[in-house]
Amino acid sequence: MIPNKKQTGSRHLMKNDNLKNQYRINEQIRAKEVRIVGDDVEPKVYPIDQALKLAHEREMDLVEISPNAQPPVCRIIDYSKFLYQQKKRQKEQKAKQVKVNVKEIRFGPQTDDHDYNFKLKHAKGFLEDGDKVKAYVFFKGRSILFKEQGEVLLLRFANDLEEFAKVDQMPMLEGKRMTIFLSPKKKDIPKKVVKPADQKSDRNENE
User: Fold this and answer.
1) Cis upstream peptide for 71 (omega within 30°)
2) In this model, does residue 195 exceed pLDDT 60?
3) Which of 65, 83, 89, 94 is nearest to 20 (CA)?
4) Which of 58, 77, 99, 202 is least crowded, fewest Cβ atoms below 10 Å from its Cβ?
5) Are 25 and 14 in contact (CB under 8 A)?
6) Angstrom distance (rounded) from CA 31 to CA 24
7) What is the percent of the chain with per-residue pLDDT over 90, rounded to a whole number?
8) 8 A C-beta contact, residue 44 and residue 36
9) Strands 73-77 vs 177-184: parallel, antiparallel or unpaired
10) In the predicted model, what is the mean pLDDT of residues 191-199?
11) What is the mean pLDDT of the chain?
12) What's the pLDDT band for 201 if we cut at 50, 70, 90?
């Protein structure tokens, strides 16, 4: 069978597309017979030559979508459109993935209450926005002697944020820093309690 322009163009697309290794098309399909599914084609098993002929008659491509099936499952579609739809779907899925940011809050080992409350307020805001919080005490010079004081401060910080956060990592000293990691708690959506009066009202509306 002589490949038409559309088939040649599709093979060119395969060489340059990120999805090229996922699908075989046209003469790249090695099976002797394939099951064709989709619109305008009787869903059944065809010899590969007949399947390619059907695709050629419609000026479309034979695309292998389930290579591990017995026999492999194919669709007769416009391959460039198919790739576009696949890319669009991947883009939409990527957009739905929630990106988690990590916000840093720095303390000194002898942070006063005013500074502490200011940073606590910021941390609440970060957690309510869905961000993680990395809070740390930085020990400068001889202040490393106050590492126990730094640990107490971080534990107090976690306790004051108990309503908003869970502790991912307890205070840990690394070099001149003692760090604690917090992540936002998932908010439970309150269930609506249906009162007898509401049920009666709903029945009346349905009637």
Assistant:
1) yes
2) no
3) 83
4) 99
5) yes
6) 11
7) 29
8) yes
9) unpaired
10) 50
11) 79
12) very low
Q: Cα dihedral sign for 63, 66, 67, 70?
A: negative
Which value, to the nearest 10 degrees, does the dihedral of the CA atoms of residues 51, 52, 53, 59 take?
120
Please state, in angstroms and as integers, the Cα–Cα distance from residue 80 to each residue in 3, 7, 17, 121, following that order: 16, 10, 10, 52
Q: Which residues contact 6 (CB under 8 A, 6 or more apart)?
A: 59, 60, 61, 78, 79
User: Token pair for residue 71?
Assistant: 């026999």
Alpha-helical runs (H) found in 129-187? 147-160
Burial of 83 (0-12, 13-18, 19+ CB in 10 A): buried
Q: What is the pLDDT of residues 27-75, one digit of tens each?
A: 888 889 999 887 777 788 899 899 899 888 888 888 888 888 889 899 8
Amino acid at 205: E
Q: What's the mean pLDDT in 2-22? A: 48
**For residues 150-164, average pLDDT:** 92
How many residues are recorded in the chain? 207
- Short-list 123, 134, 125, 132, CA closest to 99: 132
* HSE-up of residue 118 (Cα within 13 Å, Cβ side): 7
